[in-house]
Structure formats: structure tokens, C-alpha cells
Amino acid sequence: NEFLRKVYTHLTGEECDAIKLAKEFGFPMPGDLFAHQCLLVLEHPIITTEFLSEHRIVNEDGISTGFIPDNNTLTGFKDRKDPECREQIVYLTEHSKKIVQQIVDITDVLRRKLKYAKNNNHCYLLLSSGNGFAPINRAKVRPWNESTFKNNSDLKPRLIAEFSRHCSI
Q1: Which tens digits make up the pLDDT trace of 7-30?
Q2: Edge to edge, what strands does the sheet with 87-91 contain?
Q3: How many CA atoms lie within 13 A of 145 on its CB side?
Q4: 75, 50 Cβ separation under 8 angstroms
Q5: Can you say whether residue 72 is alpha, beta or left, with left for phi > 0 and alpha for psi between -120 and 50 degrees?
Q6: Which residues contact 41 (CB under 8 A, 6 or more apart)?
Q7: Which residues are CB-contacts of 122 (< 8 A; sequence separation ≥ 6)?
Q8: Is the pLDDT of residue 90 over 90?
């Protein structure tokens, strides 16, 4: 982290903190994947943000079980449901499949790092690089409300720009 910041400053002539550097490298920060979650929920109302937060794309043996691109399926479990109907299979559209694949691609470097560290969080779909480069962990659902926008002035314009590509609301 410190080394990369020095290299960035040397190459660009700009000072750079860990958060800015993580954004430059495209590492997902807390809340960055929430737009993807919303788009999936809009397309498949059976999916909840909590379902996605707990969603595993591979099991502990590294076998793809939660996202099977060839079958266009997202398979997960809802803990609060009865055991016989806990499994939930979502048949993805081409658009929602691309959204899930984007999440997998965006979080790939984090997943590889967790896997190398033998951290089972690499199995989860939604990962975050924390406040910069560490700690890498499962992404949490971040609600958007007035206090969120007051405390993070660049969030609302960034979200509007991000969502405007997908809808006109």
C-alpha cells in the first residue's frame, strides 16, 4: 500500500491516499457494489440484498455452486425459510447474468488474495477492499439515506452517473 502510493506519486506527481489509490486500481470499496445489487433485485424481485450479501459462488472445495454461467443460474439459500424450501434458484436473464459476471470480475483480485490467505470469504460473491486495500472482507449492505449522502458528498452524483446508464429514473 505505502509502496504503491509512492510509485503513484512518483509517476503522476500527485499525492494519493489509500482510498484514492484503491479507486484508481478499481478495487471495490464499501458500498460500491450496491448499484449492482439494486439492478439484480429490480430484475429479479425474488432476490434480496441480504441474499446477495450472504451469497456464495463456490463451496469450500472451490466448486462453482452459486453462480453457474452456462446454466444462467444463481443458486443460494435463505436462512429464515423452512429447510425444505431454503434453496433458491434464480434463472438469470442475459442482462442479469452480465451484472453477476461484472461483480465476479470486479472482485476477482480480492477473491484471489483471500483464497491465497486461506480465508473462506473468497467463496462469497460480494467482496470489498475495506478502506483502501485492507481489510478485504465480505461486502455489507450499505443503506442510502440522507445522512449517508451528507457524510459523503460525492456519493450521490456518482450514483446518479452510475444508474443513469441503466435507467432514466
Answers
A1: 878 888 888 887 777 777 778 887
A2: 67-68, 73-77, 87-91
A3: 4
A4: no
A5: left
A6: 47, 48, 49, 52
A7: 58, 111, 112, 114, 115
A8: yes
97: cell is: 447474468
Q: Where are the beta strands (DSSP E) in 17-147?
A: 67-68, 73-77, 87-91, 127-128, 137-138
Long-range Cβ contact pairs of 79-85 (< 8 A, separation 24 or more)? 79/54
Instruction: Supply 168's cell numbers.
Output: 432514466
Question: What count of other Cβ atoms lies within 10 Å of the Cβ of residue 134?
Answer: 12
Task: Look at the block and give the residue holding cell 443503506.
Answer: 143
